[in-house]
Specification:
By secondary structure, the protein is α+β, with helices and mostly antiparallel strands. It is built from 7 helices and 3 strands, in the order E-E-E-H-H-H-H-H-H-H.
Length: 184
């Protein structure tokens, strides 16, 4: 099997913090996320990074000192914001390097993989159907799939990997397949 046949599986994930802006009394960092040819921009403040770090530290035994420290005085000064921007970029790049195959759910949500990246889109749909699929089938309700979800499913089916590569049983592609097979 040639790896070039399944390009989505081996796409490099990159993050860069391309700027910042002052909103009310706090700084928001503008993060550019790249997965292969796909690119999107998200915004997070330092407290979002701190929450991410706390969750990853408790779940994955992440290095507690990886995240730049919190500052109270002068937190919006230009020099601190520029320094922190570089440190937060290194933090995110380190996390992606640490989890090259499947990012933890909390990191995937932080980077919005569930909305833009095929593995994240398929995993989010699988989890939604894990929780609501049976109810939808019993109620006979209409369930609409977005074109991007259909694309993510077809790309996942092309890959030579287990349906639950992330290790999270709720995100198993099998939930989508089971649901679609039972549609009337």
């Amino acid at each position: 099997m040639d790896c070039d046949e399944y390009p989505e599986e081996n796409l490099e994930k990159k993050v860069h913090i391309v700027g910042s802006e002052l909103v009310d009394n706090y700084t928001v960092y503008i993060i550019e996320v790249n997965v292969g040819d796909h690119k999107w921009t998200i915004k997070h403040r330092y407290s979002d990074f701190h929450d991410l770090h706390e969750k990853l530290t408790s779940e994955k035994k992440n290095d507690k000192h990886l995240l730049p420290p919190k500052k109270m005085i002068g937190k919006n000064s230009k020099s601190l914001v520029e320094k922190r921007q570089k440190e937060l970029e290194v933090y995110l790049q380190t996390l992606l390097a640490r989890f090259p195959a499947a990012a933890p759910k909390v990191l995937s949500c932080f980077l919005h993989f569930h909305a833009y990246e095929i593995n994240g889109i398929a995993a989010a749909l699988a989890e939604e159907l894990y929780h609501k699929g049976e109810q939808l089938l019993v109620a006979g309700e209409v369930f609409l799939l977005r074109p991007l979800q259909l694309y993510a499913i077809t790309q996942q089916l092309k890959l030579a990997k287990p349906t639950c590569a992330s290790g999270d049983a709720k995100a198993d592609l099998g939930h989508i397949l089971d649901f679609t097979c039972r549609l009337r």
